[in-house]
Each structure stands twice: as structure tokens, then as C-alpha cells.
Design brief:
The chain is an all-alpha fold. It has helices at about 1-25, 30-45, 45-70, 75-80, 80-85, 95-120, 125-145, 155-160, 160-170, 185-230, 255-275, 280-290, 305-310, 315-374; strands at about 235-240, 245-250. It has a two-stranded antiparallel sheet. β1 and β2 form a beta hairpin. α11 (about 255-275) packs across α12 (about 280-290). The longest helix has about 60 residues, at about 315-374. It is elongated, with a radius of gyration of 35 Å. The N and C termini lie far apart (about 100 Å).
Length: about 375
């Protein structure tokens, strides 16, 4: 009886454990969301994810800067003529200088017409002196507007999507061409925040893509070596304890990395020289200063005002891809050169150890020999 009575609680506890196990097996929706977010973060830190993250970051930034820098007061859009004739403190960024230049042009034309219609046509000396003064005032006004950022384009023309994409690239890659700058207060604040968060993303891209390109180029180089020499590129070293270690027989030399970078710069030199009509020296100068992240800014593809107004700015998109891949190649060369330096240092350390062991043996042998003679 005692045994049968004791079996009842055991059965109940087993039922409870099953019921509790069944309830725990049901996954909470919040846990599903956390798991998806965790997987997304893990993917974004992979090689493919980092590349996509950089591109998405640039695209989002481009749309953001376009919205900020091309914003204009609705009154300015509706009544353009009134905005040209009367100052409006509600205008933003480059729209202020654009309205100022248009207003100055209208005022100069009116002054020239009024003076010409009122002055005697036979008084040529007075007419030339006055018109020179009017044109000199116009020239001073244009120079002042250019110093404040006027370049002959409306913000809608200057801040096209390809141009904004290149601006974002120049920020987080730290190139900083300087041909495009934010004119609004919010644009400057957005640039600061965009750089603070974008530079770490670019560094992550630089490190990961360098590893990907290095592994690909290392595999290609060793495959070519095996095909040309008929020897394996990996040699197996047997240790004293019987274990084996695979050691690369062939290390990608520094000269191969320099040839790859030189070929990439040469291709960019020819491409930009044909597109922009630059001299080959100027084109090579642009490629090297851009890939080295110097970014002087005196040569920038797609900076032609007529091309920006016509919407033909495909060059800027191709320049974006060219620089992004070029940064990856530079990271690849850094990884491969670091590997070669590491191997050379190991060989030097091994040779130094052998040399020191040889000196120690010779010194010990010399002491023993001297003791015999004594």
C-alpha cells in the first residue's frame, strides 16, 4: 500500500514536469525578435554584411543631405520674383547666395538701362565712367557671393543623388575633396554626426574587405605558382612529437601587391582622362591622391556645371565604386605585406637563433680545448 500510494505523487510530478516543459517549449515572440536582431548584427559584421552596410550607409546619408541642403521656404518657391527683389531671411543655405546674385544681376541691368536712357548719347566719357562703376559694383558683388559659396548652380542641381553619394563617401573615408560643402546649419550638424558614426563603419569595412581580397589574391597567386612550377604551394612540416603542420611554401611578394595597385591606378588614369579630358598626369594625380585619402580637391570627376544641370553624373557613381574597391585593394596589400614581413621576421629570428647557437658551441669548444693544453 505504501508503495502504491507513493507512486501517485511521482506520477503527478511527472505530469507537472511535462506540462512545464511544454509551456517552456513555446518561444516568446520577444525572444524571436531578439534572435533575429542578433543574427542580423552577426551578419552585418561579416565580410558581405560590412560591404552592404557601407553602401547602405552612403545611400541613406545621400538622401539625408539632399533633403537638408535643398530645403527651401515655400514662399520662395511660389513667389520667385518677389524673393529676387526683396531680401528674405527665411531662405536657407545656398539659396541665399543664389537669390542675392539674381537680385544683383537684375539691379545692375536696371541701373545700366536707366543711365543709358537718361544720359546724352554724345557724352561718351561720362557714359563709360559711370557704366564702368556700375559693372565694377556688379563684379564686387559676384566675388563676394562666390566667397560665400555661390557656384552658378541651384542647390537642386548641385545636390543630385550621385553628387551627394560622393560627398558621403568623402566624409566617412576621410578623403574630404571640399568641392561640396554643407551650407545650412543642420547640414553642418548632420556632417559631424555622419562622420562620427561613419568612420568606424569604414574602418570595419577596410579590415574585413582587406581579408577577403587578400584570401582571393593569395589563392590566385598560389594556383598560378602550382600550375607553372608543378609543385604544391603548401609544404607539410613534421614536428618532433609526430604532429604535422601545414606551412605555405609561397608567400605573395610585395612586388605583386605593387603591380596590382599600379595596374588599378593605371586603369583609373586612362578612364578619368578619357571622360574628363584631363591630361594623364592630372588623372594619375587624382587617382593617387584619392586612394591615399589625401583629397586635395582640385580635380573631381563630374564637377562640370553643365553636366550637373543636365543630370549626366554617372561618372560620380562610377568614381564611388572605383574608390570603394580601391580602398579594399589597399587593405588587401596591407594584409599581404604584413604577412610577408611576419614571415621574414620569423626567418630572421630563426637564423639569429642558429647563429647564436653556433657561437655558443664554438665558445664552449674553445674553452674545453684550452683546458686540455693547461
Amino acid at each position: 500500500m505504501t508503495h502504491s500510494g507513493a507512486s501517485v505523487p511521482v506520477t503527478r510530478s511527472s505530469v507537472r514536469s511535462r506540462s512545464s516543459g511544454g509551456s517552456s517549449s513555446e518561444i516568446d515572440p520577444r525572444e524571436k525578435v531578439k534572435a533575429c536582431c542578433r543574427k542580423l548584427v552577426e551578419f552585418m559584421f561579416t565580410q558581405v554584411g560590412v560591404g552592404g552596410l557601407v553602401v547602405c550607409y552612403a545611400i541613406v546619408g545621400a538622401f539625408g543631405f539632399i533633403h537638408i541642403e535643398t530645403a527651401v521656404d515655400p514662399k520662395f518657391e511660389v513667389d520667385w520674383a518677389k524673393a529676387l527683389t526683396t531680401p528674405d531671411n527665411n531662405l536657407k543655405g545656398a539659396w541665399i547666395q543664389l537669390a542675392a546674385v539674381e537680385r544683383l544681376t537684375t539691379l545692375t541691368a536696371a541701373r545700366l538701362w536707366d543711365f543709358t536712357s537718361s544720359e546724352n548719347v554724345f557724352n561718351a566719357t561720362t557714359w563709360k565712367a559711370t557704366t564702368d562703376m556700375i559693372l565694377h559694383d556688379f563684379q564686387d558683388g559676384i566675388v563676394e557671393s562666390v566667397k560665400k559659396g555661390y557656384d552658378g548652380r541651384k542647390p537642386l542641381d548641385a545636390w543630385s543623388f550621385p553628387a551627394a553619394l560622393m560627398f558621403c563617401l568623402s566624409i566617412f573615408t576621410m578623403i574630404g575633396y571640399g568641392n561640396m560643402v554643407p551650407r545650412t546649419t543642420w547640414g553642418k550638424v548632420a556632417t559631424i554626426l555622419y562622420a562620427v558614426f561613419g568612420i568606424p563603419v569604414y574602418i570595419l569595412y577596410f579590415m574585413n574587405m582587406g581579408k577577403v581580397f587578400a584570401n582571393c589574391f593569395r589563392w590566385i597567386y598560389r594556383t598560378i605558382y602550382e600550375c607553372t612550377t608543378k609543385k604544391p604551394s603548401i609544404k607539410v612540416i613534421e614536428l618532433e612529437n609526430g604532429d604535422t603542420v601545414a606551412h605555405p611554401r609561397v608567400i605573395v611578394p610585395t612586388t605583386a601587391c605593387l603591380w596590382v595597385i599600379s595596374g588599378y591606378v593605371l586603369g583609373g588614369t586612362i578612364m578619368f582622362a578619357e571622360w574628363e579630358g584631363w591630361e594623364y598626369l592630372d588623372s594619375a594625380y587624382f587617382c593617387v591622391t584619392s586612394l591615399c585619402k589625401i583629397g586635395i580637391g582640385d580635380f573631381v570627376p563630374g564637377a562640370n556645371i553643365l553636366e550637373s544641370r543636365s543630370g549626366n553624373q554617372t561618372k560620380l557613381v562610377i568614381n564611388f565604386v572605383y574608390l570603394l574597391l580601391g580602398m579594399g585593394l589597399i587593405a588587401m596589400c596591407y594584409n599581404l605585406m604584413r604577412e610577408e614581413v611576419k614571415v621574414k621576421m620569423q626567418e630572421l629570428k630563426r637564423d639569429m637563433r642558429k647563429w647564436l647557437d653556433g657561437l655558443r658551441i664554438q665558445s664552449c669548444y674553445g674553452k674545453k680545448k684550452s683546458k686540455r693544453y693547461h
